Amino acid sequence: MPVDFEITKEQEDLKATVREFAEKYIAPRAVEFDEKQAVPPEVIREMSRLGLFGVVYPEEYGGLGLDPVTAGLILEEIVRADLTFSLAVAYLVPASWGYVAYKYGSEEFRDDVIRKAAGGDLWVGIATTEPGAGSDLAGISTTARRDGDGYVVTGEKAYISGVREAREKGVWFELGGGHVTLTYTDKSKLHRGMTLFFIPLTDPKISVRLEKEFGRKGWSYGSFVLDSVRVPEKYRIGEEGRGFYIAMEGFDHARAYIALACAVGGKRAIELAADYIKQRRAFGEPIATFQGVQFQLADNWARLEAAHSLAYRALWALKMEQEGKLGRFEVTKIAASAKLFAVQAAKAAIDDALRWFGAYGYTEENLVALAMKAVKSYDWAEGSLDIMRLIVAREVLGREYVARRR
Amino acid sequence: MPISVVVLVKPVVDPKAVVKFRPDGTIDRSAVKLVVNPYDKYAIEAAVQLKEKLGGRVVGVAMAPPHAADSLREALAMGVDEFILLSDPKLAGSDTLATSYALSAVVRKVWQKLGGLDLVLCGIESSDSNTGHIGPEVGEWLDIPSVSYVDSILEVRDGAALVKRLIEGGYALMKVKLPAVLSVAGTSYQPRIPTLREVLAARRKQITVWSTADVGIDPSLVGLAGSPTRVVRMWRVEIKRRGKIFSDSDVDKVLEKFFEELRRDGVSLGA
Asked: What is the ipTM score, two decimals?
């Protein structure tokens, strides 16, 4: 396996452009995202104009046709400028779930929805979790029943990102958005009876409720209730009964991007804290001089470097899968490993970095404190850390060692 | 009426980069990334806006070593259609007189190729030498009018341009016969951040490298030989001045402290 971390001229150009944008439009306002519990719509409009919501879709559907590694290079710049991770969510969720929806969606769906998503006119989210089921996805109760030329969906999805941005047309996105939603079309078949649908949250028959999120406050979080909502057949993503498996693929994308966001966010937190400890003096010296602090910094940095490399390996694995060179389960194992490792590395680094600030850092205006709240969400978001452990163990040990459902 | 615009662009050492100095005090340019001179971005933006409004073509012209080509991609992404990069070891050491001569030779050839020319736009100065000479000098070499410190180009019509020129304490409206050289000040033309699609497309746009022979440049008028300017010595300027902040909720008290400080430093405050 060749190992090459060199980036191409095109990737360098893209990164430089996104950095310029992020430094100008995002970084000065990141604290405001959390404070106001919203990303200013003009920031999202500008991201749409740049093409940031269309990077992974093929050019024939209005995207840029970039691979997951390149999409990751762009994500780095977004995270560095916004440690609340609000925009990381805004960017990586559609890059993962929009891509999977494109891949398995019908031609009619691609023409109708993906084209608009690629142009930044519509946001694509993910809805699997319910009040009664998260890690145990087979425990969901949302059902889709065939009815004439479509389906009727009933159920409730909870703790879902982007419900407000998808619900409200013409604010963040011209057409609002919708969520790739996991349902049962045949509950008796458990995992093999699940089906995914794209459900536009702009449908007035859907009721949406917002939660007050602990971190990542700039991107909304809440639940929606589907009370016999009609969904056209063209919005079905993949075949009936394939929903669980397609969702697992989407999770692999999201986990690889999350691992990268955590590694980069952790590094940025260390950098911000480093600036501070070089200035802050105690006992007659800058506290950066103290080896007690330096050793913490070095251990954290080394873990973040490892996480950073592993995240790119996961993104590279996704790219290899796209090129038909790597199998599904291998990709899943690497992506789960990346998330498992990077989230913990970032949490530990940010915890230490925040400690170096002392009392001065314990405010809602300190980006490192906001990063701590954000990264905490990845204990569970897009698959809990214990589920990551189960996946890695399953892939290493073999399926016969998977604990059975009781 | 479609418009033909040449925009002069200087690749400079990235002002955000940490610069390394050689022992003789000169900047080690090999080690640093080159970028488009930030002042030129306003001229690029002005040129692209004119093209968007009137149609036509924007040709970039730069003079730099071949490896500077990469830095021009940014200008291409912003909407410049193609670039001519004048690159020749003979040009090394050129001062502003020699540079403006060489650039004007390129502009003249582009003018011929396009079969006409309306405007030559450039930044008001460069971030690495800040002379502000190039625009007016190119105008002289081409024997066409030039206007410096142009805030905005209000109208291009009937062989003339109406421009708003910044002057101390206000601005002047000037009508200038075309073709003309305008050095654009960074006030009205906020440089756009190109879309990612434009960034990718820029890699497919043409950058043509010309040598001095390609444009018929007289070698004795460029390089060190053609440059009356002599760099005798380079040294780092150390700024010893320090800012001081006077604070008080009462403005009069702040002013009192300020004047007291000036008097102590022996500054004459007049009557």
From this structure: 0.93
